[in-house]
Structures are given as C-alpha cells and as structure tokens.
Amino acid sequence: MTMETTPIAAAPIGRAAADRWTLQWTPVIAGALTAGAVSSILVSFAMTVGLGVSSTAPTWRDASVALWLLSGLYLVLQALVSFGCGGYVAGRVRAPYDLAESDETEKRDGLHGVASWALAVVLGTVLAAMVASAASRPNPLSSPQTVNEPSVLSYEIDHLFRATRRAPSPDLAPARSEAGRILLTASSHSGVSADDRNYLVQLVGATTGLAGPDADRRVDTTIANAKSALSRSRASTTILAFSVATALLLGVVAAWMGAESGGRHRDGKPVTGWMLHANRFSRRRDLWRRPASMPE
Fold first, then answer.
1. Which of 53, 143, 182, 243 can pair with 75 through a Cys bridge, CB separation 3.0 to 4.6 Å?
2. CA distance 114 to 31
C-alpha cells in the first residue's frame, strides 16, 4: 500500500520574515529625488537672500557671528524639511507587504526612509564633487593669471602689490603666488618669520617702487589683515562643517519619522498632528464626489 503525501505550502511567516529586510527601490529612489529637489529649492533661496558663511567676494569678512549662526540653523532646517519630505514620499509610495497590520510595518517604512536619506546624501556628495572638479578645472577664458595664489587672500595680495606707476605688462603671477604662500603662515603659532617679512618688503619695494618705510608699513598691514582673514575663514569653515554634520544626523531622524508618517497615512491609521490638514483635505475631496447611483 502506498501512501500519498500532499505538499505542504510554505508558511506565510517565512515569507514575512524574508520580506522584513527587503527594500522596494522605487519608493527609495522617489524619496531621494524628492529630498534632493526640496533641498535644492531651499538652498537656492538661502543663497538668494544671502544666508552663507563663506563667499568668494572680499565682503564675506564683514559677516557677523549672528549671520553665521543663522546660516547654520537654516541649513539644519532645510535638511529636516527636505529629508522629511523625502521620507514621507518613500513611506507613502511603498507597497504594503502581506502582513500590513503587523508590528513591523512602521519599522519597514522607517528603513525605506533611511534608505532614501542615504541615497540622497550619496547623490548630493557625488554631484558636489563633480561641480567642484569642474569649477577647479583650468579654463583659459575665466581662470586668472595668478591661479596658484590662495583665493582667500586675493584681496590682501592686491593691496600688497598696488602701485600708482607700473610697467605696461608686468608679470606678477610668480610674485603674487610666492607672497600668498608667505602670507598663509600668518595664521600659524609663530607667524611670519623675520626673513619672510624682510623678503616681502624687498619684493614690494622692487615691484611697486615704494620707499623703505612705506613698504614696511604696507607689509605689516597686509600681514595683520591676512591673519584676520585666515582666522575668520577657519571659523566659518568650522561652523559650516558642524552645521552640515548636524543637518545630516538630524536628517536621518526626519527621514525615519517622515516615512513612518507616510506609511500611517497610506494605511489609513491615525497620524500625527502636522498631517491632520492632509486628512481633512482628503475627507473634503470624498465629500465632493457624487455617488455612483442615486437611491430610488
């Protein structure tokens, strides 16, 4: 006698466990693109109104500490808004798994929000690197002759070699580059050495035609201004780096919370207070719809 065995179907619990850490890439990509678009809009608005801690213009040194702090806070705010929107889109678009009512739903939505945050950060970093590489590439139409001089001290170097009478076509590129490298040592602990200072005095006197005392005063003034400019540049760079790191750390929290809110909105569950307006709009839209058939 032979016994027939019926095949046993795979348990849905195994599939749910397998799908627990599975990502749906369409919501992740949509959330990352949304975060990038919102961030670009907010950063463009900040650049338009002048919220920045550094600039290529000499007037950036006139920025106050309050403006630096305001720019850092705005950077954190735009990260919260952009990554929150991207996470919401990732959670709202994500298709629910078999066990939609399980306790893992919010965790899965949050993981999709974190994935969209990570993808947006990687895409933003790659795009920024490409833009920086293209901007630093030598261009015969836009690059200045003194391309090797430090850009943060361009105004100080201009003041150092300023002269009322000069040869028709002087080649100041080597002198400006060398003077810039010497002025960079002004922010060190020891400052500009005596030999470098004397060399700058001779270089300025030979280039501009100034007398000894006038060249001394100009070099001393330029060294003091260069030290102040380098200190402010270092402070602005520190504030910018700290603001970017804080914005990215808080951005992953915003992406997680936004994805959870989007998932709750998708499943029709109670949502947080900031989403009540969206639900109210949805209820009004349902009321505007005419019934399919009228009762007789």
1. 243
2. 10
